[in-house]
Amino acid sequence: MIDIHIINNKGFIWNADDWYILRTTHRMLGSLIGTLPSTPRQEDQNGLPCLLSIEEVRLLVENCICRTVKYPSFTSLHVKETAKINPSDTLPNIIVHLDEICSNIIEVPLPEFINDLERIRYKVFKDLWSKGFYLTCGMKFGGDFLVYEGDPLAYHAKYIVNCRDLDKQIMVSRSRVSSITNKKMVLAKDDGNSIMYLIYHLDDKSQNNNKINYTF
Prior knowledge:
It contains six helices and twelve strands. The chain is of the alpha+beta class. It folds into two domains: 1-112, MutS, DNA mismatch repair protein, domain I; 115-215, Trna Endonuclease, Chain: A, domain 1 (3-Layer(aba) Sandwich). Strand 9, helix 6 and strand 10 (184-190) form a beta-alpha-beta unit. Helix 2 crosses helix 5.
């Protein structure tokens, strides 16, 4: 089972093999936020750790693919344990001591949903993921999720999914963004039993949005 390390209520993947398995086998992408050891002064490509969204963390744990864990802080460790490391130790000895200390891993439970929006976001994420799509954060395009039909390295995002009600003015502006970026703007609705998807199409002549029901 893969360990998701919880730091400040956020889930991280630090192991390269674990990250590769999550991406290629389970379609969990996350966001690489670290620097590459060989080229640390560039920003074109990022490396580990991988930051997972709260939806990705919850889905992985519920499907028994991962578990959420944390390491005890050094300030909370027993004095006898911290005393093992002293300034005269060589680097190999320090690494051994750190491995011994960090073996006291703690499994932590998933947090509860904060509000209804977080609950709906998770239901939408889970529904689209179960249908074989890849999902990433859609904040850059004014949505909750970007939806891909294949790996984003090879495919263009086809949908911008919103999980909240939007007023007419915001709907028009976001429809324009989706049209310019060659995507479809989708509003996801939870009817209690399943997720209903509405695709909004901007009519340039009337400046109105026409919506149609859509099934993924």
